[in-house]
Design a protein that fits this description.
This protein is 41% helix and 19% strand. By secondary structure, the chain is α/β, with parallel strands linked by helices. The strands form 4 sheets. Strands 2-3-4-5-6-8-12-13 form an 8-stranded parallel beta barrel, surrounded by 6 helices. The protein has a two-stranded antiparallel ribbon with strand order 1-16. Strands 10-11 form a two-stranded antiparallel ribbon. Strand 14 and strand 15 form a beta hairpin. The protein is globular and about 55 Å long. InterPro entries: GH, GH_1_N_CS, Glyco_hydro_1, Glyco_hydro_1_AS, Glyco_hydro_1_beta-glucosidase.
Length: 449
């Protein structure tokens, strides 16, 4: 038996996102988001599912905060629904929307849980999408104004802020691969959007400093890992392009003021250009207080000149797969963290998402025996402990997710939660993984036999 202990003050938490759990899509003045439009478009989401009700956390937030308290976590990462604050994306703030988040934050604080707030987790107001969305630089200004409202409204109550969650998903997954809202398939459009999101991030960080806001601010990009199939330089570079596309494309401009050279050549070679205007890179390159990282999976890849933009082909391997079909290998988590440390230095890191889709349902006794999820968490927390011992400055970890929820284009078929949600009755049931993670969060250690 091995015991893995974490340093005193290590922050254990759980994470969610507004569109995935809140529901109440047309209540109290909330405007439509691109995900409302996308999910109501036939054929875009499995089973025709949408987030109209989701987990109904808008009305059940007190119950969900009690689940967090009983889980023993010290922090809760959630996101603000931009269209709940600005139904048209800009203009006059919706007081009822602000009041909801005040109620949520006050409930968290009353129960000893620190709010960790994401400003953008993909639910762009549809009114702004109608004006061109993130392809329109006017959306940058609208986002910064939205952020200013949040900083001023919640100053002193929320002290940890994330500007953008997984900007790769908002840009390339959504606008080049077309899998997420708004569902475009245009590399130039996606490249424009990725750049504009980074400019919005940088200007928001600058505003945070200018306001003298209390607390810290960062960003939460994807973190993926790819292992070369063979020893060739072509295979190695193919894997590096995978790693850089989802992560470094968004981190390098912040830390170094430039995009990754080889990946930039790859994208430009495919006919897209980065729409850099004077001052953009200076705006983007603002020091951040921490880096959030979301990690789920790893793959084994090889070079294939016919394999799309990156010429990087994932192959079937010995890796286990979660029920959503993502291969995973916890060693990749360790290697990813070492890679980030070696490239970007000693910046504090929060693991802002990590978890597995395991679709176990309650048995006849009502118990959810999700042993595979527990095993996933054990493997990845071992790698996390190893990385910390190797000098990676990880200061907190947030399990994805507190609740089973609306899993984007997969609808309600795929379950990541520590808590099982019956989407007909909305009843919450703690899974075995909930009780396992509770022990970790309360004890600040776990054991592997």
């Amino acid at each position: 038996m091995t015991i893995y202990r974490f340093k005193e003050g290590f922050a254990w938490g759980a994470a969610t996102a507004s569109y995935q759990i809140e529901g109440a899509y047309d209540e109290d003045g909330r405007g439509l988001s691109i995900w409302d439009t996308f999910s109501h478009t036939p054929g875009k989401v499995k089973n025709g599912d949408n987030g109209d009700v989701a987990c109904d956390s808008y009305h059940r937030y007190k119950e969900d905060v009690q689940l967090l308290k009983e889980l023993g976590v010290s922090t809760y990462r959630f996101s603000i629904a931009w269209p709940r604050i600005y139904p048209k994306g800009r203009g006059e703030a919706n007081r009822l929307g602000l009041d909801y988040y005040h109620r949520l934050v006050d409930e968290l604080l009353a129960n000893g849980i620190e709010p960790f707030c994401t400003l953008y987790h993909w639910d762009l107001p549809q009114a702004l999408e109608d004006e061109g969305g993130w392809n329109n630089r006017g959306t940058i200004d609208a986002f910064v104004a939205f952020a200013e409202t949040m900083f001023k409204e919640f100053g002193g109550k929320i002290k940890k802020w994330i500007t953008f969650n997984e900007p790769w998903c908002s840009s390339f997954l959504s606008n080049y691969l077309g899998i997420h809202a708004p569902g475009n398939k245009d590399l130039q459009l996606a490249t424009n959007i990725a750049h504009h999101i980074l400019v919005a991030h940088g200007r928001t960080v600058s505003l945070f400093r200018k306001l003298g806001a209390e607390g810290i601010i960062g960003i939460a990009p994807n973190m993926t890992w790819a292992v070369p199939y063979g020893p060739s330089e072509e295979d190695r570079k193919a894997c590096l392009r995978n790693i850089q596309w989802t992560g470094d494309w968004f981190k390098d401009p912040i830390f170094f003021g430039k995009y990754p050279d080889e990946l930039r050549e790859c994208i430009e070679g495919a006919g897209a250009t980065i729409p850099i205007l004077d001052g953009d890179m200076e705006d983007i390159r603002q020091p951040i207080d921490f880096l959030g990282l979301n990690y789920y999976s790893a793959s084994i890849n090889r070079y294939n000149p016919e394999a799309g933009l990156l010429k990087s082909e994932p192959i079937e391997s010995h890796y286990e797969k979660s029920d959503i079909g993502w291969p995973y290998d916890a060693v990749g988590f360790y290697d990813s963290l070492r890679y980030v440390k070696d490239k970007y230095g000693d910046i504090p890191i929060y693991i802002t998402e990590n978890g597995a889709c395991i679709n176990d349902a309650p048995g006849l006794d009502g118990r959810v025996r999700d042993d595979r999820r527990i095993d996933y968490y054990k493997q990845h927390l071992v790698s996390l402990s190893r990385a910390i011992d190797a000098g990676v400055n990880v200061v907190g970890y947030m399990a994805w997710s507190l609740l089973d929820n609306f899993e984007w284009a997969e609808g309600y078929d795929m379950r990541f939660g520590l808590v099982y949600v019956d989407f007909r009755t909305l009843k919450r049931t703690k899974k075995d993984s909930y009780y396992w993670y509770e022990k970790v969060a309360r004890n600040n250690w776990f054991e592997v036999k």
